[in-house]
Design a protein that fits this description.
By secondary structure, this protein is of the alpha/beta class. The chain contains 16 helices and 22 strands. The protein has a six-stranded mixed β-sheet, with helices on both faces. A six-stranded mixed β-sheet has the order 17-18-16-15-21-22, sandwiched between helices. The longest helix is centred in the last third of the chain and has 27 residues. The chain starts with a strand and ends with a helix.
Length: about 500
């Protein structure tokens, strides 16, 4: 039988990743290229789209080489991408601006103005929270500040759209990436005209909206040659990283929840139709024509641990650093950490939020602070999860992926705080596998998204410890009250 492989390509915030899989979901090769961040002013976070596109080509070429496969053995490639980036593009497809990514907070005044006026109406139409992360709010900032690239732009694109335009000379955006702009109506699957007018953008300046299984062929011959692929090989547009991480880990049926924690974090669940939270606590982003993903992202995942590690001048490995928290019992002997050191999205949606340690005494040591930060990150995810429960019921299974999923200590903490069984894929590239599987659906190699469940290598479940769960429920009550009381000072 001829060998067949599929690639999942993930354009993340921190890096781009090219992963070659066999059709059972086992990873054959992976290449990661780190992205550069630029901080021209406080609260501004930018990336160079050209640099990312070049890194993408290199990563794909190197992954194919590492896998030692022939051109004809790679049958398709599917795309995953981080959400909320925005680039001003000229008529020739060249960037006029850097990419303003999700972490860019320059438009916080515009977000506050919309929240105070028409925020409820906007959110009810789009399911996208009112926050500086979204391209809709970024466009308002550009319009109000007379941002020069905005006035010169022929088009507005995400990093993913820019890469597709460079490779295929087409302006396309999938449902999920369109939903993340804050300009898209998930009920009609079209751009929301009222919001286009508010942001000063014409429909023709945005890309054509297509399903995640849309096939793209005939990549630019020079790009194909650089990658080492056949230019006729079908690419599939895929979706955003959140939807595909759920798919890639198997959290796709009712009651199945996925938690991702890398630099940032998120908790998500796929639902039928459109489910919008009236309290503005969660997002609802489209995936397919009849399904959406609901959930909440946090700014403060591994970045909070890295901040503490740097603050303590710790030069050891991250694994060794986290192990120190194991010396301390649940509750960090009274320290409660509110993890809002990078502002916060869900559940607060407040870029002005600040982190806090509560309950510090002379007896506390570095291991107490490490444990408190780990617990604070997890309590925040749990609080977002409680909002999800009100929309979709209690979770039956929780699937975890991301960098923190490599820590056995944290997985046990997750099981204890959520009082649920935790499942972890043997691969830490769930979004890439979700993208690859979407490619297989797109080219009719498999019949459905649901079939992926038979092609995910899962490790053994982590079970909750009842005694620890009781302790954590009491601490969470204190955490939630502290978060509520301190929010008036943000």
């Amino acid at each position: 039988m001829p060998r067949e492989f599929v690639m999942g390509f993930d354009i993340g915030t921190t890096s781009v990743k090219a992963c070659v899989f066999d059709l059972s979901g086992h990873i054959v090769a992976e290449v990661e290229k780190m992205n550069t961040f630029h901080y021209p002013q406080t609260g501004w976070v930018e990336q160079d789209p050209k640099e990312i596109e070049r890194s993408a080509v290199q990563a794909i070429r190197e992954a194919i080489g590492q896998a030692s496969i022939e051109k004809h053995e790679l049958i398709s490639l599917g795309f995953s991408s981080a959400m909320h980036s925005l680039i001003c593009i000229n008529e020739d497809g060249e960037p006029l601006s850097p990419a303003l990514i999700w972490a860019d907070g320059r438009s916080h005044h515009q977000a506050e103005q919309i929240l105070e006026t028409i925020g409820g109406s906007v959110y009810s139409k789009t399911g996208t929270p009112i926050h500086p992360m979204t391209p809709f709010i970024k466009l308002l900032w550009m319009k109000e500040t007379e941002y020069e690239p905005y006035h010169k732009a022929a088009y507005f694109m995400s990093i993913k759209e820019y890469v597709l335009q460079r490779w295929f000379n087409k302006r396309l955006i999938d449902y999920s990436m369109a939903s993340a702009t804050g300009l898209f109506n998930p009920s009609s699957l079209e751009w929301e005209q009222e919001l286009l007018e508010l942001s000063g953008v014409r429909k023709e300046q945005l890309s054509e909206i297509v399903p995640p299984t849309r096939i793209l062929t005939n990549i630019h011959p020079e790009i194909a040659n650089e990658m080492g692929i056949d230019e006729a090989m079908p690419f599939v547009i895929g979706a955003a990283d959140g939807q595909l991480a759920n798919l890639g880990i198997g959290a796709i049926l009712p009651g199945e929840v996925a938690v991702s924690v890398g630099t940032s974090g998120a908790i998500r669940q796929i639902t039928k139709g459109v489910t919008i939270n009236e309290k503005h606590e969660t997002f609802c982003y489209s995936f397919t024509a009849d399904s959406s993903i609901i959930g909440g992202p946090t700014n403060n995942g591994g970045i909070a641990l890295q901040w503490l590690k740097d603050l303590l001048n710790d030069e050891g490995s991250f694994e060794e650093f986290l192990k120190e928290a194991g010396r301390v019992a649940p509750g960090a002997e009274g320290i409660v950490f509110l993890p809002y050191i990078n502002g916060e999205r869900a559940p607060l949606w407040n870029q002005r939020a600040k982190g806090n340690f509560y309950g510090v005494t002379l007896t506390h040591k570095r291991e107490h602070f490490i444990r408190a930060v780990l617990e604070g990150i997890t309590f925040n995810l749990y609080q977002i999860g409680k909002a999800l429960e009100r929309l979709a019921g209690s979770p039956k299974r929780i699937y975890v992926n991301g960098g923190l999923a490599r820590s056995g200590l944290w997985l046990q903490m997750m099981a204890d705080i959520f009082e649920a069984e935790i499942y972890v894929s043997e691969s830490h590239h769930s979004a890439a596998w979700g993208a690859a599987w979407t490619a297989l659906v797109g080219i009719d190699k498999v019949n459905s998204f649901e079939e992926i469940k038979g092609n995910i290598p899962l490790g053994q479940a982590v079970l909750p410890n009842k005694e620890s769960s009781v302790i954590y429920q009491k601490i969470y009550e204190q955490y939630a009250q502290l978060a509520k009381d301190l929010s008036k000072y943000f």
